[in-house]
Amino acid sequence: MSSMRNAIQRRNHKERAQPAQREKWGVLEKHKDYSLRAKDYNEKKKRLKILREKAAERNPDEFSYSMLNSKTDRYGRKLQDRGNATLSQDAVKLLKTQDAGYLKTVIQQTRSTREKVEQSFQLSIGEGVHVPGGGDEGTSGEHVLFASSLQEQQLLGSAQREKDSVSSAEHGSRQAHQLYKDHGGHQFKDLASIDSRRAARAKEQIMRVVKEERAARKLRKRQREGQESRLKALKTREKELLATEQQLGHERARMSNSVGGINKAGVKWKVRERKR
Known about the structure:
The protein is mostly helical.
């Protein structure tokens, strides 16, 4: 009978979900969640009970010299000796000298990297002026004019744009005049129907060039943003390394008694120089 009872498919009893009006309280707590929470609560209650008993049975006259020698930090945690050997003054000076040499090497590397990134970033901002024609009349190439400063580059770019606009206007007027001579004055109104295919092809080429230029502009913008963020991070790192080097140099000078400082009592002192 038990085997037959197990052969029958039974209903899957699912746990109740959180009602819609109580969704702001999060997931509905199940019995296993309550068991874990109750177990944790009882353990903490037992621990507090033991601590209260220890505090009640404490001997007020109890004393040990470790109570005077032990120290705690600002969070109340006991500070203990880790068993590390104390270094001599000469060993500490040597280690600080090695640290200073390492810092100088890292600062030099960071500075050289920052200068390279800064130079490439400046070049990406000013990319020169592309001049079509290659300098020779009738040629289809182009050459690039590089300026010594950003202002000079802007002046060259504005002058080149004005030149391009004038040349395109002159080319359009010459082409219209030639078409007028070829087809006659009375047929000038029908030029749009004659050159419709040519205009469509030119429009497609212009749209393709515009899309390519837009994509290239977006790519250059992303590259500039990446270079700018990297340059900012390198400048911050160089500044922090320089501050660390300065602090380390001050510590080395204090160890060699070449500069003043503040002693344990909080009194400022300085090295007394010989009168000249």
